[in-house]
Write a structure and sequence with these properties.
By secondary structure, the protein is mostly helical. It has 10 helices and no strands. It is globular. The N and C termini lie far apart (44 Å).
């Protein structure tokens, strides 16, 4: 099938309505597109794979059904096997191997995008533009912060790409900053930010 981003978005929003899940899809898409550009890969294929990787999660938020339900939807829609394999392999518990660069990248950026959002939201400005790589790596060491995010998956994913964690964070953070408005992370309007001089240690 010919990949079409508008059609992919329509498919996603048919199954996903929660804003946080849509924002996650957009963040992963942005990161995937950035890595595709850097590696000379098919940006549209990589981007749409990121956009659709969790399309079933709102309807099937459990390991018994996700991402298998999404894979079935993608298969029925005629999406290519390499996309379907990457979506299946982004969840470690499926047992599917991450054999392609696209599959490895999807796994590597998935958890990290959510962690970066969490870091942005504890900034006084709530702006991703105020997030620095060192802010993310510092919070990374705090196991009580965003405790549900798997640090192990992020480290493993970066390693699979041949990157150190700070370098990996830099690429993903930059991609997300590029779509800050779409993610709702442009920040609090001027005059509405907290006035305290004690910013969170992020």
């Amino acid at each position: 099938m010919e990949l079409n981003r508008d059609a992919a978005w329509e498919l996603l929003t048919t199954h996903t309505r929660k804003e946080n899940l849509l924002n996650h899809a957009l963040a992963v898409e942005a990161a995937m597109r950035e890595f595709a550009r850097r590696g000379g890969e098919d940006e549209e294929l990589w981007g749409i794979t990121g956009l659709l990787h969790d399309l079933d999660y709102e309807e099937h938020p459990n390991a018994e059904e996700h991402p298998w339900a999404g894979v079935k939807i993608l298969e029925e829609a005629g999406y290519p096997p390499e996309m379907i394999q990457a979506v299946l392999a982004h969840a470690p518990y499926t047992g599917a191997k991450r054999e392609t660069a696209m599959a490895k990248t999807l796994f590597a950026v998935d958890e990290l995008t959510g962690f970066i959002v969490a870091v942005a939201l504890v900034r006084p400005s709530r702006s991703i533009h105020d997030v620095k790589v060192k802010s993310v790596t510092k919070k990374f060491k705090d196991r009580s912060f965003a405790a549900l995010v798997s640090r192990e998956d992020i480290v493993e994913g970066a390693g699979d790409l041949g990157l150190e964690v700070p370098e990996h964070v830099g690429v993903v953070l930059g991609a997300m900053q590029g779509i800050a408005g779409e993610l709702g992370l442009e920040g609090i309007p001027a005059g509405n930010a907290p006035t305290t001089d004690q910013a969170p240690d992020a």
